[in-house]
Amino acid sequence: QQQVKQSPQSLIVQKGGISIINCAYENTAFDYFPWYQQFPGKGPALLIAIRPDVSEKKEGRFTISFNKSAKQFSLHIMDSQPGDSATYFCAASMGGSARQLTFGSGTQLTVLP
Amino acid sequence: NAGVTQTPKFRVLKTGQSMTLLCAQDMNHEYMYWYRQDPGMGLRLIHYSVGEGTTAKGEVPDGYNVSRLKKQNFLLGLESAAPSQTSVYFCASRYRDAGDYGYTFGSGTRLTVV
After folding, report:
1. Which of A16, A11, A29, A14 shows the shortest CA–CA distance to A74?
2. Quick check: A96 contacting B, CB < 8 Å?
């Protein structure tokens, strides 16, 4: 049972375009929603995160949109660059000291020059 | 400052063999985690530890054991490897009071069981 569903599995975007990755969750106890970026041969690294009390968070070219009623959140990458080519994972966590992350299945983004 | 170091980086095992993956962090983090990453499935939590001498099961613990005898080390063991354990394994750590922004991941161990 996958608690965080992510789409699309792969995405190809032209340089300068907008990349959009979507995630949906089932457990309403989740209260923290991060996005991780992973380059080949490396571990995931935190990109941006949001809590459900806000509907949008922007950091540079990266924006998270959050729809609490629909239990969905998405990552928007504006002005996509070839250097953004990586695998992106959405994740969610809930209360408790250990704060384990539940990950989506990942999206492989390719930005064409 | 190395962060989270995983050894080995690559390993090939025969079915039934045993091995231990080592995760070492030099950031004095209290919490440590082992995840496995499989194509199309994201990262799934195997075991985690909230402090020296304590461990707990995650989402997919079967076939694995862990130990945390020292705060800086978190070991993941496979007693009798199976082809289904072919995966990339990631260790992560964080401060207890870091909220959700403190996860640091290692660069992974690619394990193949033949």
Report:
1. A11
2. no
The answer to whether B9 faces chain A, any CB pair under 8 Å, is: no
Chain B partners within 8 Å of A96 (Cβ)? none
Instruction: Supply the pLDDT for residue B2.
Output: 73
Task: Give the torsion through C-alpha atoms of A8, A12, A14, A20, to 10 deg.
Answer: 10
- The residue-averaged pLDDT of A58-66 equals 96
For chain B, give the number of residues.
114
| Amino acid making up residue B54 | T
A44 in reach of chain B (CB within 8 A): yes
Is residue A96 scored above 80 in pLDDT? no
Residues above pLDDT 90, as percent of chain A: 84
Which residue ranges of chain B lie beneath pLDDT 50?
none
Mutate to test the interface with B, among A89, A100, A108 (most CBs of B within 10 A): A100
DSSP A49-74: EE-TT-SEEEETTEEEEEETTTTEEE
Average per-residue pLDDT for chain A: 93
DSSP annotation of B24 reads E
Spatial contact of A64 and A49, defined as CB atoms under 8 Å apart:
yes
In this prediction, residue B99 carries a pLDDT of 63
Cα nearest neighbour of A44 on chain B: B105
